[in-house]
Amino acid sequence: MGSIWGIRLEYIKNLFRGHEVNLKPELIVVGMGNPGPDYAASRHNVGFWLIDSLAEKVGVRLSRTHKTTYSTHVEIHEKLVVLARPRTYVNRTGEAISYLLNRYGVHPTQLVIVYDDIHLPVGKLRIRAKGSAGGHNGIRSVISAIDSNQFPRIRIGVGSPEPEDDQIEYVLGVPDDEDRAAIEHSISVGIQAISTLLCKSVDTVMSEYN
Questions:
Q1: Are 28 and 110 in contact (CB under 8 A)?
Q2: Fewest beta carbons less than 10 Å away: which of 19, 87, 100, 103?
Q3: Is 44 a catalytic residue?
Q4: Could you report the per-residue pLDDT of 181-199, keeping only the tens digit for each?
Q5: What is the model's pLDDT at position 149?
Q6: How far apart are CA 23 and CA 34, in angstroms?
């Protein structure tokens, strides 16, 4: 069987034949967002956009279902990676993350969370190895649920609302075509950064992509 982007397709098929009991992924990559079609195109869902784009790139679907997540497994650079989208709303993302870490028995440092950031210009990407919530309710939920802020995260800039505009309405709003294109570009860069993170340290990835 051939491979795409360093992914062995036969390996993926075997994962869905019931051999998942003792899987130990190298990384769990979680895109943050709100479930449901009403939010699908919103700025707050850029984490979902990245997961969907990566899943499409490697030819898999998020077919594993739990009450807190949709997920799948894939091998990239001969290392197992879990891709996941929470089924919870953003401010309850910690429930999904807690489940995933417990399910696979991995440390928070093996987690990568992708989410929107209104403090970054549209399309700007920033990678951090750890840190505070920075005012993001989803990250605050994660830190509270797992009692740690020692996890890498990829922040994708969606720009800031005007002073007179409501912040919640802004992040739940839909970007225009120009902003959407800039965000899509940063998603492509983010996918490459995730691939690189499987081969290099997070500090090296930060220096290359920030």
A1: yes
A2: 19
A3: yes
A4: 999 999 999 999 999 999 9
A5: 98
A6: 27
pLDDT for residue 18: 47
Contact assessment for residue 88 and residue 96, using Cβ atoms and an 8 Å cutoff: yes
Q: Which of 19, 44, 77, 119 is catalytic?
A: 44
Task: Give the β-pairing of 79-86 and 153-157.
Answer: unpaired
Distances (CA, A) of 196 to 41, 78, 86: 27, 13, 24
Positions in the chain short of pLDDT 50: 1-4, 10, 17-18
pLDDT value of position 2: 37
* Per-residue confidence (pLDDT) for residue 54, from 0 to 100: 97
Residue 138, SS3? helix
Q: Which CATH code for domain 24-209?
A: 3.40.50.1470
For the chain, the structural domain boundaries read: 24-209
Q: What is the DSSP letter of 108?
A: G
